[in-house]
Amino acid sequence: MRRILHCDMDCYFAAVHTRDDPSLAGKPVVVGGDPASRGVVASANYEARRYGIHSAMPASRARRLCPQAIFLSPDFPRYRRESDRIFAIYRELTPEVETASLDEAYLDVTDHLGAFGTATAVAKEIRRRVREERGLTVSVGVGPNCLVAKIASDACKPDGLKVVPPERVQAFLDPLPVRRLHGVGPATERALAAMGIATVAELCARPMEVLLARFRSHGRTLYEYARGIDERPVETQHERKSLGTENTYREDLAHIEAMDEQLEAMAEEVGDGLTRRELAACTITVKVRYPDFTTVTRSRTFAIPTANAKRIGAAAKTLLRRTEAGRRKVRLLGVSASTLVPGTMRQLELFDDG
Predict the structure, then answer these.
(1) Is the domain of 221 the same as that of 281?
(2) Which of 136, 140, 217, 347 is least surrounded by Cβ atoms within 10 Å, i.e. has the fewest?
């Protein structure tokens, strides 16, 4: 039986700011766009959530709900640096760490209990070290697989520990709404509701044949998840730090219009790559090499991360004009995206002024 931990930092963005500025303690803090424009909420601490503020809400509405809230601009490089330090603690306890996002990780401690003896003791050690060494709190769910561990950490937030032993999995899952299961989004939830299924227990009562007929291959997954079955391993591959493309031309490019066309095509490729990997980029970089092999780069960091090809292309063309391209011929062009964050942050750019 595997022993899986799901570690989820509490109100991560807001918590980092509050730790670094003690004057914010006990006050409603909102991280996101400007409430005077079209910005949205990226993170809100629990003091702000009491007023009904939540992520992806327009910042202007958040301001109306809580006029005394303190609004702060996101600082993704800062969050990434802190994330690296927290994940270093995780990896001291087990090498089997899967990065789910900047503030969220799955840990397989099955073969790495060491002197702690139990997964629960490892979870307690993680919570202690994150609090004492980083000045932050992390909620940890412990279960026999990723599915159960994730739901357990959600159930004990903030600053909690929830252990679901194998023999208690079904009792833990049964009363929960189906939306709590991994892979059940709004569309699947509506389809299940149309079948009279609202809870995991009601889903568990349906034969696999019925679910396969309605949801095809996804029906098998729903059948298994309703029973707490999840064979997904903890994936320990290294987190991608950047994504980009470049091209060396047989004939040097002389005209800025031709260079723009190349950058637009590269931006499409980079945007598609980010979207497929469910990532978004805070920083876009353009690389330019002249015929004499002199190479320069220019970068822009967005307040709100993006995977939008048009936005990436527009930034790339602006950066190109900060070089000598057009006045000098160009041998190579490249576009890259870095400081990558979870793709869920992309929804924020819908309200961003750019």
Answers:
(1) no
(2) 217
